[in-house]
User: What shape does this take?
Amino acid sequence: MVMKIQKLVARGIRGLYTEWSNSCKMASPVCIVLLSLLLEGCTRPAIHEPVTLTLLEEWTTKTLSAAREQELQQFTRETGIRVKLLPSPESAREKLALWQELLRTGASGPDVYGIDVIWPRILNEYFIDLKPHFAGEISSQFPVIAASYTVDNKLMAMAYHADIGLLFYRTDLLRQYGYREPPSTWDELETMAARIQAGERAKGKKEFWGFVWQGAAAEALTCNALEWQAAEGGGQIIEEDKTISVNNPHAIRAWQRAARWVGSISPPSVVGYEEWDALNVWIAGDAAFMRNWPTAYVDSQAAGSKIRNKFDISLLPGGKAGRVGTLGGAGLGVSRFSAHPREAVELVRYLSSRDVQVRRSAVLSVPPSLPELYDLPEVLERNPRFALLSQAFRTGIVSRPSTVTGKKYEVVTDAYIQAVHSVLTGEKSAPEAAAGLEKELIRITGFKKGPPPRGSAHP
Ligand code: GLC
Assistant: This one.
């Protein structure tokens, strides 16, 4: 082990560090992880000491990381295996870049990695097959989630939480403005948001906005925009049968409508918002509606939140093809470079286990990856809205085209993000951006163009 670390220090880390010093200027978390790994490497125990695993995953908020630390302490108490939780950057793209850098250097690095539901085909080669270890458990997951983590019959990661885009709305304001229900269509949301915003501003709340969401050029924009267009029958960008369908009138109209929101019901700066920017405006009490993931619930309901007990969640509004939320979520994979694969599998088993998922969903409202848990009284009592989610995971999701595009998903999503962002900022018209994107996607994937399927927004 010591020799391995010395070699790594001599060869890998120095190169890695130089290579990364540029990205460090942009993303300091990258440097922090590297340093943590270096220190971890230097303090790795001698043979007879207890094993210490390193875990790099996607949870970055204080609340979630603190809860994770507690889970890890419990794991150590039960198994004697220690775990060091590494810090991680915030956005999905920065995370993926960091994961790739670490995995490409091989040799050392974290033992267990958090895997976003869109990454399995991008990172597959670096992870061991978990199927032999979880053969009995796979069938109890939501089928769509288990399928996302299965690459050519290999279980690349084990899911431990499910995610779906949701609408958060202010119950107090809806009541005040005479609305009994949250909006069921995007057009209704637009009208309600405009009315509430005008009313609140007239009362002197100059910073109040109708609707906050994620409009920055980042992965969350793919999720938001896919929801708008799929609900209107505008398809999934690239369909499961490899048809590039994005250049169609429904998608174009959905993008145009969102562009209209910027500066009217949404702040002009929404084009720079990621999840936490929207959440900050929302918990400050400065928005009527927010699109976010279920995990935003905890911070909305936390002690310092101005909207504690004044909000609820519902499915996202829909259009003529139905109501859909983008499927998100995370799993855990064991690096094939891990020196402790047996212990690493135990960690994955623990963090994805039924009991830990129950506790996590009761305390943190994190949606489990196991459908049966949504019917448990102890889970439902704390999260009455989980009944809604369980249904949505079965019939109301839209998936990003990460399975059909495999390793190319990264480039595909980047192209989509740039196209939609250029419409939101007014740099390009929606038809122009959609036509350009179509050409680019043909070039990237070699697939053919065609119309989106008719009918409902989800398969
Ligand atoms: C959430 C989702 C994940 C998605 C990311 C985008 O973490 O779970 O699937 O890629 O948000 O920001």
